[in-house]
Every structure is written in C-alpha cells, then in structure tokens.
Design a protein that fits this description.
232 residues, alpha/beta, TIM Barrel, 8 strands, binds pyridoxal-5'-phosphate
Length: 232
C-alpha cells in the first residue's frame, strides 16, 4: 500500500507532465486535495507535506477539521451542493465555493459574508451541468450567461465571480474531453462578454480524469481518491 506522501508526489509529477504536454505553465494549475470523509489526522499529515489547498463537500464534515487545523496557510474550497439555508456556515471557513447554482444561494452567501465583515471576499464558481444528466446539480450551459448577468446586476457585496465548475461525465475519454472543452469555451466567452478579467478559473477534473481536464484548460483540479486512497 502506498503512503499519502507517495500518492501526493505522484500526482504532482503527473500534473507537471500534463501541463508540459499541454504547453501550459505548471503554476497555472492548482491541486485541491478533496478531504471529504477523511480524518483530521489525515488532513494534518497532508498539510505537513506542504499541500495547502483542501476541498470539502459538506458543512458538517468540514466543521470538524477547519477550525482544528488552525493555520491560515491553508485554503478551503467548498465543492458540494449547498442548500441556501446553510450559506451562513461558509464565511470564516471557506475562501472558495465551486457550486453556486441559484440566485437565492448567491444572495444568502453575499449577506452572510457581509455580515461577517464588509470587506471579506468569497471566490465563487458557477456549477454547470454540461452533460445534462438529471442526477447532477448545476445550471444548464445556456443558463450560465443570463445567470451571470443577473448576479452582476445585483451587485452583491463580497462575492467575486471567478469562473465555472463541472463534474465530468461518466462516459468515455472523448465524451469527458468534449464536456471539459465545452466548459472552457463557455468560461472564455463569459470572461469576454462581461469583461471580467478575474473570471479566469475552471474547476474540472477528479482522480479519474484530471489529466484530460488539464489538457482542456483546468486551473483547479479536485482530487480525492488518488491522494488519500479509496473512501470507506
Ligand atoms: C468527491 C469529489 C471529488 C473527488 O473525487 P475523487 O474521485 O475521489 O478524486 C471531486 N469533486 C467533487 C465535487 C466531489 O464531490
């Protein structure tokens, strides 16, 4: 059985390799270690190896780890579906949320952030259901621009719109690649149409498909199993 140190090193090397193949700067891709269901000790071990970016998909699971890790050097990303009534749990814990998918949630997040501190910033990604599978959360691709227009018009304080997120399709490599490519085209088109320089992030790619995602432009890859091992 390989240790998490070996796993982490292997993934860092693969990211290096994928970025070179894609003629991209290795610094343009950030690895998010998805620590959902993992213990505080596992997260601490990973942080001590220099991994400074973690992802969680439920508030409950995250709350037992974030305050206990007790270091401001670590950045936390909320990657799961969030009910708007739980938006108040985000400020002070998470710096990023990848799963914004409704006006109501955006309102609640903004209010909660402002409440905490009027100059706090939450980096927001809009989740997109590129494949159109019914089981998935997120906006349909054609809904993204109208949505972005709406939230920008609302001028919500404390929310910084950073890009798009998707969960890969469970199909073959070509279908996966097409979906990631579609997300990139949409993100670039939004960045241009709305003239937001900082709408430059693409969260796509997990343990099984992060190399394809990097080749298609991912800037944030969310990897759990390949780092920590199988979830129980
Ligand atoms: C669990 C999860 C991941 C990580 O998946 P692995 O296959 O374990 O790498 C990435 N993104 C989201 C949204 C997840 O829920």
């Amino acid at each position: 059985m390989s240790s998490i140190a070996d796993n982490l090193q292997k993934i860092q090397q693969e990211i290096q390799c994928c970025t070179e193949n894609a003629k991209r700067d290795v610094a343009s891709v950030r690895l998010i270690a998805v620590s959902k269901t993992r213990s505080l000790d596992e997260v601490k071990a990973m942080a001590s190896l220099g991994q400074n970016c973690f992802g969680e998909n439920t508030i409950q699971d995250a709350m037992t780890k974030i305050p206990a890790l007790n270091t401001s050097a670590v950045e936390w990303h909320f990657i799961g579906h969030l009910q708007s009534k739980k938006a108040g749990k985000i400020p002070g814990y998470f710096q990023w949320i990848h799963s914004v998918d409704s006006i109501k949630l955006a309102h609640k997040l903004s209010a909660a952030m402002f409440n905490k501190s009027s100059n706090a910033v939450l980096n927001c990604l809009i989740q997109v259901n590129v494949s159109g599978e019914e089981s998935k959360f997120g906006l349909m691709p054609e809904e993204v621009k109208p949505y972005l227009q709406q939230v920008l018009d609302l001028n919500l304080p404390c929310l910084k719109w950073r890009g798009l997120m998707t969960i890969g399709v469970s199909g073959d490599d070509q279908q996966t690649r097409d979906a990631f490519s579609q997300l990139r085209i949409l993100q670039q088109s939004c960045q241009q149409d709305f003239d937001i320089d900082t709408f430059d992030q693409l969260s796509m790619g997990m343990s099984n498909d992060y190399c394809i995602a990097i080749e298609e432009g991912a800037t944030l890859v969310r990897v759990g199993t390949a780092i920590f091992g199988e979830r129980k």
